[in-house]
């Protein structure tokens, strides 16, 4: 319940520029010295960066994984949504790179959620909740 006269805060449904890994140099740094975990659907690399900003996400979905742009974009939308939901739990100042692995089909959102959380736990980027 909110206080009278106060507008309730909605969860942001956007994926803003300060949440993205955008620079080529950042991608290179993550590939060269990031911690990596591999799963069924994708690999996750993470790297601690200087400062106290929010965790940022980069995506690598190659045409070898999904030949059509429509499916590659669907991959990206699903992973971004899962990242957006997990963002409050993720440690600050980390660069996170998700790289899709070749599989027979596009994973469902629930499968991405489960595997992404597993990667974050294995890399100690989030604390375990009572599973």
Description of the structure:
The chain is of the alpha+beta class and 131 residues long. The chain has a single domain (17-122), classed as Ribosomal Protein S5, domain 2 (2-Layer Sandwich), CATH 3.30.230.10. Helix content is 32%, strand content 18%. The chain contains three helices and four strands. The protein has helices at 24-33, 69-86, 109-122, and strands at 35-38, 42-48, 56-60, 94-100. It has a four-stranded mixed sheet, with helices on both faces. A hairpin with a 3-residue loop joins strand 1 and strand 2 (42-48). Helix 2 packs across helix 3. The longest helix has 18 residues, at 69-86. The radius of gyration is 16 Å and the shape is globular. 19% of the residues are buried.
């Amino acid at each position: 319940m909110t206080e009278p006269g106060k507008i309730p805060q909605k969860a942001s449904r956007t994926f803003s520029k300060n949440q993205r890994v955008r620079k080529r140099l950042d991608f290179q740094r993550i590939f060269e010295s990031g911690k990596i975990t591999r799963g069924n659907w994708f690999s996750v690399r993470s790297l601690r960066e200087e400062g106290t900003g929010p965790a940022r996400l980069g995506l690598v979905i190659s045409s070898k994984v999904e030949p059509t742009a429509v499916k590659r974009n669907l991959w990206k939308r699903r992973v971004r949504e899962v990242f957006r939901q997990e963002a409050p739990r993720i440690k600050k100042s980390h660069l996170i790179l998700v790289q899709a692995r070749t599989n027979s089909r596009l994973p469902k959102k629930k499968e991405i959620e489960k595997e992404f959380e597993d990667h974050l736990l294995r890399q100690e980027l989030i604390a375990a909740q009572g599973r």
